[in-house]
Write a structure and sequence with these properties.
This protein is 46% helix and 9% strand. The strands form 2 sheets. The protein has a 6-stranded parallel beta sheet, sandwiched between helices. The protein folds into 2 domains: 37 residues; 337 residues, Rossmann fold. The two termini are 49 Å apart. α6 packs across α16. The protein is α/β, with parallel strands linked by helices. The protein contains 16 helices and 8 strands. β7, α13 and β8 form a beta-alpha-beta unit. The longest helix is centred in the N-terminal third of the chain and has 26 residues.
Length: 439
């Protein structure tokens, strides 16, 4: 049966009789009607909007851009058992990266204690990787502003301890999948900086032959099964990879990185349910950098602590300080051991912070400079380097040598990307189907 349209005159007569339903930009209420049928009404609405906003600002009410940088307080209702415990966990999560001076000192001492339990070569390798990722990303930002990198570009600056810490706990035959913020993971897995930079440039010498760009790095040689641009799209894929490992009878582990915003996707919950139900060796790493694009986790999730969501699936879970590379490594080792020995999944919520915007096109108006500087007090590279120096595993001269070698490696990558050729036109028809396209 065809739907009948309500004549415009009757519609506005209805609104005149029921003004409480009309769209009013100056009102705080969420009205169900927001209908502007022609340009005249649109202009009038814009005038009302400008007038309403100006009146509210003059009266001292904060604008939306100001509200975005003010964290919402967690719910304090005590209705129901466990409410106080949930609130305490939320406060712990919020303070995981920004900590008081006393707590900062305690965690620094804990990292120094962990340093003594790991051989020097492994420690220096992790430090080198973290510095490599940082300097690579800084040069990527420069190349992007020069127009050498097209499309979107999401930098990993500030989160280096997560990828380096987790991947240091894996074997070379384990599998890794991540989101579009993938440069650091590829580098930490061993993909050549030359190939990663060339891929960012869209050149034939890139690890995806120039077809993937920044968000779709891929390297079969290191079992890096991609950056994935669709939010949460890699989570069911990693679950399938873990199923394949179990089906084939190997003890390989699948590791899946994703941001906290992906937790709100249905694929996250479906995957975790399946992984626990079928006992799959998959490790889910939530890199909680506090913001999904420009929206804080407090504004996007009713339950702010991601680790608690594992309870719905009876899955092992752990909350980790993502600014401490050795704490991340320890948690990853426990998860890997569980996956190899018992074929069981794990959810790790790793609290971290990105020092740059969501992408290179993000002006970052939703947070203050003071907030960023507060997080930078626990820069994971500086924390780790200071711990190694304190325990005399490295000196200023050796640290300077690492910086020099990293700089040379990144400069070579830029040169390689500049000189690498563009993909040939016929490459448009390759790697589309399993069987090549016949012209």
């Amino acid at each position: 049966m065809a739907r009948r349209r309500v004549p415009g005159g009757l519609f506005f007569a209805f609104l005149r009789r029921n003004p409480q339903l009309a769209y009013n930009p100056a009102s705080k209420a969420n009205h169900p009607v927001s209908f502007i049928p022609n340009s005249r009404h649109r202009v009038e609405a814009q005038k009302r909007l400008r007038g309403g906003r100006g009146a509210r600002v003059a009266a001292g009410e904060k604008t939306m851009s100001e509200l975005k940088v003010i964290p919402m307080k967690p719910r304090t209702s005590s209705a129901g058992p466990g409410a106080q415990g949930a609130q305490a966990r939320e406060e712990t999560a919020a303070d995981a990266v920004v900590v008081p001076i006393e707590e900062h000192e305690r965690r620094r001492q804990e990292q120094q204690h962990r340093v003594e339990e790991i051989d020097r070569e492994a420690l220096l390798r992790m430090l080198y990787q973290m510095i490599l990722v940082r300097r690579f990303e800084e040069k990527s930002a420069e190349a992007y502003t020069l127009g050498k990198i097209g499309g979107f570009c999401h930098l990993y600056i500030g989160q280096e301890a997560v990828a380096v810490g987790v991947l240091s706990a894996l074997r070379k035959d384990d599998y890794v999948l991540t989101s579009y913020r993938d440069h650091g993971h590829a580098l930490a897995l061993g993909t050549s900086p030359d190939e990663v930079m060339a891929e960012l440039y869209g050149k034939a010498g890139g690890c995806s032959a120039g077809k993937g760009g920044s968000m779709h790095l891929f390297d079969a040689d290191t079992n890096f099964l991609g950056g994935h641009a669709i939010v949460g799209g890699q989570i069911p894929l990693a679950t399938g990879v873990a199923f394949a490992s179990k089906y084939r009878g190997t003890d390989q582990v699948a590791v899946c990185f994703f941001g906290e915003a992906a937790v709100n996707q249905g694929a996250f919950h479906e995957s975790l349910n399946m992984a626990q139900l079928w006992k799959l060796p998959c490790i889910y790493i939530c890199e909680n950098n506090q913001y999904g694009m420009g929206t804080s986790v407090q504004r996007a999730m009713s339950l702010h602590t991601v680790v608690d969501k594992a309870c719905a699936y009876d899955m092992a879970a752990e909350f980790v300080d993502g600014m401490d590379v050795l704490a991340v490594r320890e948690a990853a080792l426990r998860a890997v051991g569980r996956a190899r020995a018992d074929s069981l999944p794990t959810l790790l919520e790793v609290a971290t912070y990105r020092f740059m915007g969501h992408s290179m096109s993000d002006p970052g108006n939703y947070r203050t400079r003071a907030e960023i500087e507060k997080y930078q007090e626990r820069d994971p590279i500086k924390l780790f380097a200071d711990s190694l120096k304190e325990k005399q595993f490295i000196g200023d001269a050796e640290l300077g040598d690492i910086e020099r070698r990293v700089k040379e490696e990144v400069e070579r990558a830029l040169k390689f990307a500049d000189e690498s050729p563009e993909p040939a036109p016929e490459e448009l028809f390759t790697n589309i189907y399993a069987n090549p396209i016949r012209k």
